[in-house]
Every structure is written in structure tokens, then in C-alpha cells.
Give the backbone structure.
Amino acid sequence: MLLECRRLSFGYAKPLAEPLDFSVTEGQVVALLGENGSGKSTLLKTFGGMIPPLEGSLELEGQSVAAYGLRELARKVALVRMGLAVPDQMTVEEFVSLGRSPYAGVLDGRSAEDNRIVEESLREMDLESFKDRAVAELSDGERSRVFLARALAQRVKLLLLDEPDAFMDIPRRKNLFVTLQKISREKGMTVILSTHWVDYAEKYADKILCFGRNAVVEALAAEARKLGLLDWAEV
Amino acid sequence: MKRIVLCFVLLSLLAVLLSFFTLVSGPVDIPWDGLWSSRIFWELRLPRVVAALLSGVALSVAGLSLQTVFRNPLAGPFVLGISSGASFAVALSMLAGLSFGHLGTLGAAAVGSLAVTSLVLGISCRFRNNTVLLVAGLLIGYFIDACISLLISWSDAESLRVYVSWGMGSFGRLAPGSLWIFAVAVLVGLLLVGASVRYLNGARLGDEFARGLGIPVGFYKKLVLLGSSILAASVTAFCGPVAFLGIAVPHLAYLLLRTTNHRVLLPASALCGSVIALLAGLFPTYPLNAVLSLVGVPVILWVLVRHSAKEEL
């Protein structure tokens, strides 16, 4: 089991939902679905160790997330948020190279292996031709791919994505889900993402976590609709 | 990469040439064969070159670090009131007659700048807003200036003359015996900032992002602010309140190097700063701050215009 939580209460001051029991293995894709403000981003931050659980246990590879050192955790988990403000002058390559920071020494140097991984991450996100351009000058969709490339360069086991498809057109969105599924299968990386695109979640995710009024309900992606968990999203 | 190497080579050459020119030129002609035995060389010109080099390096590195930590291109030891904190401590020494000695003046300046840095850091944590931060820094600066004004009104004519002269800034008042103290203080500041390169590279994107890269943000932020305060304080203590280098040079370094990587930007800023300081030092008869402002103001205006133009696009 890669990530496992038992009776997990999450939120800032008070719990946003009933305690959650949930687990995910290597190479799975999990989609978090629910209305804005239902707690998807908060749960992602909790999984990423940025917000401590209010109650219950949260374990990554059998060890409490809270027990990990910051650098050790950064080598296992990456959280990608699309609203990040990147400095005007920072190039795509410089930004993606930040993904190697958890592996760098005091002077933040990059080894040949680091550079190879950065190149590979740029290629995986189809960004090679963009690498010398400023991130701030890119379109929202292109920038989303840059943010993902940075997380890929971090070579983590758990990739947490907060609405990675928010600014993408339909072909790019489809590409994103295909890529995420491919990465999870080929690299054994577990992907947990929040999205509002129910159809894509059903097609490309293995599991779905539906955020209701007071509870988060888990289901296999293929069964969520049958179980009535997606009724709120019907047109 | 070629651009980076070329810039470093050119800047280094320029720094060496300017240092050499400052050492061999001056109002008094010293013959070449008598240069090494000349008191003017050892007691006036060499300290002046060292003061310019160290001030340029210290203020540029402090400015770049503060701009990164506060994620504000207009931050700097002066704008954030940090240099004012150091100035107040020196003013206490000169105007209120509290003699601290060379080490004591440096220590007092460091305490003054650290106090203001802590205050600014507290405000930045509380509001997380760059505008509030800048306004707070300016207000702190005004407050300290008011305190200094009070000290001025209570001081005698001779103390006032010394203080006004100090306030104009100069690389020429560093005593040979104080060189090592200044150098050690700058070295300590540089080591503290240099040990935080990984943090500085992540911090440009915010504390949360940096933490996600496995960087202990709180620890490194304090380390950088401590280093920047020591750098700004040491220059203020030995050369006076030298303005503009801290805010303008990091932008020049970026314009030349075109990178946001602090592994490159920090040494590049240090080199640019020392070159500009040496250039300004070529006009010892003019007030240092006046010469530096003539260089600094156009740069800051350019940054402001460029930023506002981008936002309108």
C-alpha cells in the first residue's frame, strides 16, 4: 500500500467531512470529484503533509507522513497547484529543474543525472521546444504542463494535482489524462488529482473519491455512476 | 552558458582594471617604484578599493536576497528600512556620544538592522502583502529618520558635521586597521546567504512551494535575513548609508545574465555591485550617494516602467 488513511479528519480548524478510510496502491489514478469548497484541495494538502490531520492516521509506505523529514517527503510526494505565480524571468527549464531541488546539496547544483531527468520530464510533457521561454509568457494550458513537468522531475511516488486541467482545452485535457494514466502505469507513480471533469475521471481514473456535503465516499471509477455517486453532476 | 561565462569574465576583468586604476591614480602622483612603500597607497587607496569592493558585494547580495525572500523586485536594505536601523545605531554613536569603537559600531549597526529586519519579517508574515510590506518598510524608515532628527536637534555642531559627512556615504573613511573587521563581517554575511542558495531558488515561488521541495523555509529565511542584515549593517557602519546598490544591482545582474538561478545570480550581483561601487569611487570628491543615485534612479525607473507595461498587456 502506498498511501493509507484510517479515520482521517482533515481541515484547518474543524473537520470538512466525516472521518475518511482510504487507501491507494502504486500505479493507481484517483480522481477527487466534488463542488468547489467541498475540501478537495484541503485533502490533497493533507495527503502531501502540508496540513496535519486533525485526527486519525495517515501513512505513506507504512510510515506516518508526519514522521518524514521535509526533504525525504519531497522525494516521495509532490503537490502541483495551478495558481502558482512564477517570476517574470524564470524559464521553463529553470522551473522544471527546481524539481531536482530535493536531491541537491547546499549549493543547489545539478548533476548530469539531474539534467537528464529534467530533459526527460520536458520531453514527457512535450515542452522541449519551450524550454528557453519564460513560464510567465506561456498560455495557461502550456503553463499547466510546465508545472506537471516539474513534479515529474521530482521523481516522486505520489503525485498530487489540484485541478491540473483547469485551464486546458479539450484535446489538451484528454492528453493530460492519457499522460497521467501512462505515467502511473509505466512508472508506478500514484496520481491523485482533483477535477471537475467527471467523464474523464470515469474513463481514466481507477478510483473516485466523491466529496458530498459531509462525507467523502470512495468507489471504483467504473462503479461510481451506478452507485449514484455522480448524480449531482448529471446534466 | 556562453553568455554567463562571458559576463563573468568581462565583469571580473572590469573589477580588476577599476581596482588597479583606483590604486594607482589620485590627486597625489606616486612614482611606480615608490608605490609599495607609500603611506598614501596603504592607508588611503588600498582601504578605499577594499571598501568599494566589499560594499558593492555586500549590498548587492543583501539586495538580491531580500528581493527574493520578500518576492518583491523593489525590496532592498534601504526600502525595507534595514539600513535605517543600522544608521540609527551609528547616529547614536556619533550624535548621542555613545562611543562603541569600531567593533562596537558594527555590532550596534547589526543590532539596529536586525531589529528592523525582524519587525519587517513579522509584518510580512502577518499581512503576506508586498504593498503593505513596502509601506511598512518606508514607515519604519521615516520613524527612524524622525528619531535621528531628534538626535540631530540635540547634538552639537561638531557631532552634526561628522554625522552629515557620514550620511553622504564614502569609501574613503575606512581605517586600515578596520579592514579585517569589515572583511570578516562581509564574509560571515556571504556565508549565511551562500548556504541558503537552495532556499533562495525555491523561495522565489513562495514559502509553500519551497517547503514542497523539502526546504525548511523558516530556518533558511532567518538565515538569509540574518546574513543580509549583517551585510547591510557592515556597510552602513564603515561607509555610511550607501543607497541604491542594494536595490538596483540585482536587476542589472539579471539583465546581463538572464537567469533566475541564485547559484549564478548571487556571484553575478556581487561582481556587478563591486564594479559599480568602484566606478562610483572614481569620483571621490563628489558625495558617494549622489553618484550612486545618478546610476540607481534610472534603473529603478526602468524596472517600474517595465513592470507596469507588462501588467497592462
Residues 2-11+45-312 of chain B form a domain with the ABC transporter involved in vitamin B12 uptake, BtuC fold (CATH 1.10.3470.10). The mean pLDDT of chain B is 85. Chain B touches chain A at residues 71, 194-195, 197-198, 201-202, 204-206, 208-209, 211-216, 254, 258-263, 310 (CB under 8 Å).
